[in-house]
Amino acid sequence: MSSQGAEQRAGRYIRQPAGYRAFSPAVLPPDPEIRIDSDLQVRLSQADRALGRLDGSIQTLPHPDLFVYMYVRKEAVLSSQIEGTQSSLQDVLAAEAKILDPDRPHDVEEVVGYIRAMNYGLSRLADLPVSVRLICEIHKQLLEGIARGSHLTPGEIRTSQNWIGSSGCNLNNATFVPPPPHEVAEHLSQLEKFLHTDARLPLLIKIGLAHAQFETIHPFLDGNGRVGRLLITFLLCEQKVLLKPVLYLSHFFKKHRQAYYDHLQAIRDHGVWEEWLMYFLRGVIDVSQQATETARRILNLRESHRRTITERLGRSAGNGHRVLEHLYEHPYVSVNEVKELIGTTYPAANDLVARMEEDGILREATGQSRNRRFVYDGYIRLFDEDQGDGE
C-alpha cells in the first residue's frame, strides 16, 4: 500500500467553502481490508476467551441481574469521567439514594443520564437493532434533563460544524474537524449498513471498527464519546457475546486516555486501523479479566456475609438474608425500606439494621440521628474506581 493510499484508507480531509479542512470518512470495512496477522489473531483469540470467561462467571452468580446494577454504574462513572466529570461511584449511589450532600459534584446528573441511556438502550434492543434510530434515542436519554444539555439538541443529528481541540481553539487550528453536517446522515447510514450486512469480519474486529468510525463521524454536538462507548456495550449484548452489560471498557480508555485519542487520530491521518484494533482488543482483555475477578469477589463476599448472618442473627437470619440480597441492587438502604422489604415493625427493622451494622455488613452513611441511610460498603469497594488494576 502506497503512503498516499495508507493516508486515505480511513478517509480524507476536504477543504470546505469557509476555508477549514474537515474529514470525510471512507465507508467500512477498510480498503485495503484489515490485515489480521499473527499478532492480531492471537490478541483476538485472547479477547474472545476473556469475554467468554466473563460471561460465564456472571452466569455463576446467583440472580445475575442483581449485580448488573453496579457494573452499569461503574461504566457510567468512568465513561463520564473521560469527558471531565468529577463525580465518583459513591457520589452517584448517594445521589440515587437521595442523600443530601452540599459538597457533592454538580455533574452527578450527567452520570445519572448515562445510566438512564444505557438502561433504556438495553431495553430497546428487544425490539430495535443497533441502528441510527436507536443511537439518536440513546443520545436523547443521555442529555435530556441535564442543565447544560437543553441547547445541545438531545437526540438530533447536528446541523452545524463541530470540532475537537484544546480550549479556545477554532475550526482552523482544531486537532480534528469531523465531517461537515450535510454529510453526517449518510455516514451514519453507511455505518448502520456495515453493522448489519458485513458478516466476514470477526465480531470484535467489527465492533472496534464501528466505535472508531462513530467517533470520527461525531454526529452530535455533545455526548459523542459516551454514546460511542455505549455502542460497544449494545453491540456485545445484541450479538449475545455478553448476556449482561458487565464490561466497563471505559476503565481502560480512561487509564490510557492519551493513547485512546492518539490511536483514533492515527486512523484518520495514516489509515492504521490495525494498531487501533490491537489497542482496543487489549482493553477488552484487561477489563474482561478485571470484571471476572470482580464477579469472583462478589461471590466470596456474598458467601462470607451469608455465613455471618446465619451464625449471628439467629431467628432474624431469614430476614437478614432478604436484606442482603436487596443490597446488591440497592446498596443504600433506610430502616423504613427494610421495614417494607421484610414486612415487619419499625423497631424490629431497626434492630435488624443495627445488628447488621454491628457485624460490619452495613455502615451508617449520613451522620444523622434521623432519616439515616446505611450503605453496603464492602460491596461498593469491589467496584471502587480508585482501586486501580486490582479490582
UniProtKB/TrEMBL annotation:
InterPro entries: Fic/DOC_N, Fido, Fido-like_dom_sf, Fido_containing, HTH_MarR-typ, SoFic-like, WH-like_DNA-bd_sf, WH_DNA-bd_sf. One of its GO terms (molecular function) is ATP binding. The keyword Transport does not apply. Keywords: ATP-binding, Nucleotide-binding. ATP binds at E83, H218, D222, G223, N224, G225, R226, V227, G228, R229, Y260, Y261. Pfam families: Fic, Fic_N, MarR_2. This is Fic family protein. The active site is at H218. Gene3D superfamilies: Fido-like domain, Winged helix-like DNA-binding domain superfamily/Winged helix DNA-binding domain. Residues 130-282 form the Fido domain.
